[in-house]
Design brief:
Length: 284
């Protein structure tokens, strides 16, 4: 294996690729009801909230609704896992301007591990998981084949890919299930040749299979072509209704050498698909 030098300083969280059948829109405007709560906190900082029909990014501490002493609910990929009390919003990452963070007690992000799933916290009083999320067996031959086929379409061969997270859920409550597939072969290191990390969402609509790519990081095996390539690994941190509209969003954590980020993906409709609605993070 070839060890790459440290990456240069950047001003954005870990990058993610646009889905195959989606667009990236900021902010996402809808006709949903307005509310001033629902502040979302991730391992990467204050992600934002939904207000007046739009997702609001936490660009300034002064913009964040009051959070000191507020109860936050901790939610992971398959449901709620705890609760915490919030502090005042405060400046976060020193190397990124206008990054916002806040403390939670107890701290659900204390044990940081870029190769494991971390939950999110939200100040919300509605049903966060209106549709059940089911974990599927990680050794599913059918879904491993789907990952293998996707990698092959990118010029990467892996006949036995490793699935690390696999969930089935009807995100919109429309009777059609989505399957969320997270796969990688990192083995706990970032500087490697021949590694990948992908997050795919598969859905069948009127007998037609649709596939969205929420994250994709592929480093080829050729050390000359990718000598300085740095891989980015992703995990699903939460699947929940984060704007009180009955549909569920997907939140991804991603990490790379000396950096990490969190991104919220919202499903708009069967034509537009997923959009990247909120993004935060810190890294060198």
């Amino acid at each position: 294996m070839t060890t790459a030098p440290p990456s240069p300083t950047v001003d954005v969280p870990a990058p993610t690729s646009a889905p195959l059948t989606t667009e990236t829109t900021e902010p996402v405007t809808t006709t949903r009801p307005s509310f001033a709560s629902g502040v979302i906190v991730s391992a990467g900082g204050v992600l934002g909230w939904f207000e007046d029909g739009e997702w609001r990014a936490a660009d300034l501490v002064s913009d964040v609704p009051p959070t000191e002493g507020r109860p936050f609910r901790i939610v992971g990929p398959t449901g709620e896992v705890g609760s915490a009390i919030g502090s005042e919003a405060k400046p976060g990452c020193e190397i990124i301007e206008d990054h916002v963070d806040l403390d939670l007690d107890p701290d659900p992000f204390a044990a940081f591990d870029p190769f494991s799933s971390k939950p999110i916290a939200i100040d919300a009083d509605w049903e966060l998981v209106p549709q059940p999320v089911t974990e599927l067996p990680l050794d599913s031959a059918a879904y491993r084949q789907i990952v293998s086929d996707h990698l092959a379409s990118r010029g990467f061969a892996d006949l036995e890919p490793q699935i690390v997270q696999l969930y089935r859920v009807d995100l919109e409550g429309d009777g059609a299930d989505e399957v969320i597939i997270v796969a990688d072969n990192h083995g706990g290191a970032f500087f490697q040749q021949g590694v990948y990390s992908v997050v795919l969402v598969r859905k069948v609509i009127e007998d037609e299979v649709q596939m969205a790519v929420l994250h994709e990081s592929i480093v080829a095996e050729d050390p000359e072509a990718d000598e300085f390539a740095i891989s980015v690994v992703a995990r699903v941190s939460a699947i929940a209704d984060l704007d009180d509209d009955g549909a569920m969003e997907i939140v991804l954590d991603s990490a790379y050498y000396e950096g990490a980020g969190t991104e919220l993906w919202a499903y708009v409709d069967d034509d537009l698909g997923f959009v990247s609605a909120l993004l935060t993070g810190c890294g060198a």
